[in-house]
Amino acid sequence: MSRRVRTLLFLVSAAAFAVCFALACFRLPPFGTDHHPYGTRAVAASLQQRTANVVASVTFDQRGLDTLGEEALLFAAVLGAVVLLRRARDESAHDPERLEVSPPIGLFGALSLPVTLLVGGYIVAHVQLTPGGGFQGGIVLATGLHLAYLAADYRVLKRVRPLATLHAADAIAAGAFAALGCAGLLAGGAYLENVLPLGTFGALSSAGLVPVVNVAVGVEVGSGIVVLLAHFLEQAHEMGSAGQESEKGSGGAR
Questions:
Q1: Host H or E run for residue 236
Q2: What's the pLDDT tens digit per position in 201-220?
Q3: Phi and psi dihedrals of 92, rounded to 5?
Q4: Rounded to the nearest 10 degrees, what angle do helices 209-237 and 163-180 cross at?
Q5: pLDDT for residue 99
């Protein structure tokens, strides 16, 4: 396909998108009005599903396919980075250097690591009750684990990071989200429809499928971010080209 044909296709597609987008915007409620049909319906649907956190109800009940697409994009991004950062033929691994960390930073990191992991787990587990969710909690969990890198060094992070398990958890959690959507189909409803018992409003076991799907998101996001950073840190601390290794050897001989 020539460049001229690609440009023409892009212009036609962009024009069609612009027309559809403009028509959709003209039908939106005006700014400053007291009439909020989307917000009113979202709150009513959240209460019907016994989800105290309206945002979680929108994310996992009303627009669950959007969340599934976002999770799939993150999984694809992590997978692409892992493939691109894999060890090349002209690279060789070497032992990472030991870095010195000041005692105050080490103490702060050591004390903050368990607290951060606890907060991340709390955010993931209480999505149906309080603000947060799997994406936010997963990022907090991944950040908490990497406090070992800031408080000590890369060697300590490698010892406390079960990378093989996290690789598997990332893939399993991503597939679990897609598989949980089939529960609605098996029950005769729609994909990702909330078909589990809704429980009691305000209780940890409320909202049916929402907390279950959210846990899958939290595991996928947390594991994916750790795996992604692991490959970047491996490149920075362990990998070197054959030429660099020979230069280090010759430099040491001199």
A1: helix 209-237
A2: 999 989 999 999 999 999 99
A3: -135, 145
A4: 150
A5: 73
Q: Per DSSP, what are the bridge partners of residue 239?
A: 93
Confidence of residue 240 (pLDDT cuts 50, 70, 90): low
Nearest to 89 by CA among 254, 241, 214: 241
Could you tell me the CA-to-CA distances from 3 to 9, 14, 93 in Å, in that order?
Answer: 10, 16, 43
Count Cβ atoms below 10 Å from residue 54 Cβ, excluding itself. 17
Q: Amino acid identity, residue 187?
A: A
Sign of CA dihedral 204, 207, 212, 218: negative
What predicted TM-score, i.e. pTM, was given to this entire model? 0.78
Closest to 73 in 3D by CA, of 203, 221, 236: 221
DSSP helix/strand/coil, 214: helix
- 123 pLDDT band, cuts 50/70/90, is very high
Both tokens of 197, joined, read 């018992």
Provide the residue type at 94 as one letter.
H
d(CA 114, CA 119): 9
Place of tokens 């992070």: 157
End-to-end alpha carbon distance in the chain: 57
User: Helix or strand or coil: residue 34?
Assistant: coil
Question: Do 88 and 130 touch, CB atoms closer than 8 A?
Answer: no
